[in-house]
Amino acid sequence: MRSPRYLAWLAAGAAVAAAIALSGVPAGAMAATPIPTPTPSAAPSPSAEPGAPTTPPNVQLCPPPVPAGTTQGYVGLCWSASTDDVGVTGYEVYRLTATGFVKASSPTGTTTVMGGLAYGQVYTFYIVAKDADGHTSPPTALINARAVTGMVVSPSPVPGDTTPPSKPSGLRDNCVADFPGTAFCWTASTDDVGVTGYAVYRLTSTGWLLVGTRTSPYFMEGNLTTYNKYTYVVVAIDAAGNVSVPSDPITTTALPGFPTPTPSPSPSITPKSTPTPICKVAYTQSTWWTGFSASVSIMNTGSTAISGWTLRFAFPSAGERITQGWSADWSQGTDNLVTASNLAWNANIAPGASVSIGFNASHTGVSDPPGSFSLNGAPCTKA
């Protein structure tokens, strides 16, 4: 006796065959090519909606039984049924595009065949379950699938640029100092024509939300709950709208940014001390092919002299490395965090006065300026 899943696939194949016959598309056998799928982070997922179905389990590629010779690309997916207290009514399948995830299919069962795709192109999907009360399950992990068609008849190559950028890699957090929220960066993608930008998606309780786009390989998001963990993926996009497969997920903690000091009890005799400095930093940069030179001006905008100072900032990319500095004691560890401390002759900055320092640095393709500065632990404004 045939299994229910086999009969379901026969029905799906018949429906696709009928659609092809009506559109006049010729027929071809189908073959699936396995594509690596990102491994989800071990961090806990966002809390599900109360009463929501369970996440659809066991998602896998299921090459659909499409008639031979079609020139379209197809992706077939199947999964095990979700459970719910009032009953699952169906599923929604979302496909990644250059402008975000779009609904690609709304099956009532646990299989779907999606056509009209570019043969040989890799697409990214996730699936959610819906119940009778309108609740949505947490999303599945992202799954990558190559659109397939006949082994006998292969379509002619699509004209123009159809090659997507490489997968963003090397995601790491804590590469933007003192930002109040989440911040992370990654290694730039490559493309045969050129990467034009990146899209960043955050995992929510019901899907993957587009939370920002960047032209450089770093991202910051504010207005989050401090010390909560958030999971993201990044995709690269080229000028033709080709989208890379998503990066491996990164889970990072939303930090409070600059700490707010707790005042100490006032002693009977208040000791004389230098108050927290008020400062403004002007940063100018001249960039060339493999390096850049920067001039930094630190101005005391307060009413009291600054006696001794340490300036801190972070490069957006870990590939930016200081090679030579002047007018300060410069240091940079193995990461992108930079410290510049006064020398004996420029330790004091009178109110309204400035000191000028600078450095030369190398880069590996990204030479964006720092986003923020702090002096003696307090934030500075940017000129």
TrEMBL record:
InterPro entries: CBD2 (IPR001919), CBM2/CBM3_carb-bd_dom_sf (IPR008965), CBM2_carb-bd_dom_sf (IPR012291), CBM2_CS (IPR018366), FN3_sf (IPR036116), Ig-like_fold (IPR013783). Pfam families: CBM_2. Residues 44-57 have a biased composition (Low complexity). Residues 258-268 have a biased composition (Pro residues). The keyword ATP-binding does not apply. Keywords: Carbohydrate metabolism, Glycosidase, Hydrolase, Polysaccharide degradation, Signal. GO terms for molecular function: hydrolase activity, hydrolyzing O-glycosyl compounds; polysaccharide binding. Residues 1-31 form the signal peptide. The keyword Coiled coil does not apply. Residues 36-57, 254-273 are annotated as: Disordered. One of its GO terms (biological process) is polysaccharide catabolic process. Residues 272-383 form the CBM2 domain. This is CBM2 domain-containing protein. It comes from Microbispora cellulosiformans.
